[in-house]
Amino acid sequence: MHPIAVPVLALAAGALAANCNGHAELCDRAYSSVSFVGSHNTPFQGIGPADNQLTSVQQQLDQGVRFLQAQTQDKDGTPEMCHTSCVLKDAGSLQDYLASIKTWVDGHADEVVTLLITNPDAIDINKFGDAFKATGLDAYVFTPEVQLALNDWPTLGELIADGTRVIVFMDYNMDTSKVPYILDEFAYYFETPFDPLEDKLTQCGIDRPAGASADGRMFLANHNLNVEVLPDVLIPDLVNAADTNSKDSIISQTDTCNSNYGRNPNVVLLDFISVGDAIAAQDQLNGL
């Protein structure tokens, strides 16, 4: 063997054997076989009716959250982190949001982070790409050469070793011919109904995309409880967040999912993720 080959192979083996998202056991597990707890409406922090979280994005990442969902709205032609409308809740620009994530990712070399961004106003996808470039977060993104089948995803260790450890999805109005790393969520996932009330919290039916099959898709279980304050007016239920985010409550829903589809959800999306047992539930879902 050429003398340089031994250290190169040792380095590669070391990279793949390192802790991945805090656990060596996850390094050889395909991304599509890992379960993540996710933060719903990540940037909307506070105790108002339009708030879904109590802690900052970086605090959520420090907690162990590796799936961050966020809404954008069109504000003067650019993507802004707004909840339903920028009059109701404006958490700043997409660029600032991504910059905070980039700072955290820079300092945590063995972590794979997923972003799910919504684009209901059909803002030009290139403006999202511009924000990724401006912050430098595009240096970390994963770009598959073709649409991946469920079993074709790389392992967490491979994503880390390749330096492509930020996975980005968008619900609607993406265009991978223009920004190839912002992936079509519903080409890869299905979701359970969102904004559930108490009587629907543990269900696990397919809501989006309509008429989809579970076969070949990862899936996201919405476990973010709401309370109806007026007819058809729902707000996040902070009062009961500790119960909603308890391990027992989360596992109750994921058990239903497992019964339906023979596997755990890839994502369990939570409000007020700093309250309750989110990370303990994530560890249990991953067999850790």
Report on this model:
The protein is α/β, with parallel strands linked by helices and 288 residues long. Helix content is 28%, strand content 22%. The chain contains nine helices and 13 strands. It has helices at 5-17, 57-63, 94-106, 125-135, 156-162, 185-188, 241-244, 247-261, 278-285, and strands spanning 36-39, 67-71, 73-75, 78-83, 85-93, 113-118, 166-170, 182-184, 189-191, 218-222, 226-230, 233-236, 267-270. The strands form three sheets. An eight-stranded parallel β-sheet has the order 8-7-6-2-1-13-10-9. The protein has a three-stranded antiparallel β-sheet with strand order 3-4-5. Helix 2 (57-63) links the parallel strand 1 (36-39) and strand 2.
List the helices and strands and how they pair.
Blueprint: H1 5-17, E1 36-39, H2 57-63, E2 67-71, E3 73-75, E4 78-83, E5 85-93, H3 94-106, E6 113-118, H4 125-135, H5 156-162, E7 166-170, E8 182-184, H6 185-188, E9 189-191, E10 218-222, E11 226-230, E12 233-236, H7 241-244, H8 247-261, E13 267-270, H9 278-285
Parallel strand pairs: 1-2, 1-13, 2-6, 6-7, 7-8, 9-10, 10-13
Antiparallel strand pairs: 3-4, 4-5, 11-12
Helix pairs in contact: 1-5, 3-4, 8-9
Note the main attributes of this structure:
8-stranded parallel sheet; alpha/beta; about 290 residues; 3-stranded antiparallel sheet; disordered N terminus
SS field, number of helical segments:
9
Could you tell me the strand content as a percent range? Answer: 15-25%
Quickly give the structural class.
alpha/beta
- How far is the first residue's CA from the last residue's CA? 38 Å
Sequence of secondary-structure elements: HEHEEEEHEHHEEHEEEEHHEH
Low-confidence stretches: 1-15
Q: What kind of sheet is the major sheet?
A: 8 strands, parallel
Q: What strand order characterises the main sheet?
A: 8-7-6-2-1-13-10-9
Number-wise, the strands total 13
Give the overall pLDDT as a whole number.
Answer: 93
**Measured on Cα atoms, how large is the radius of gyration?**
19 Å
Question: Helicity range of the residues?
Answer: 25-40%
- What global shape is seen? globular
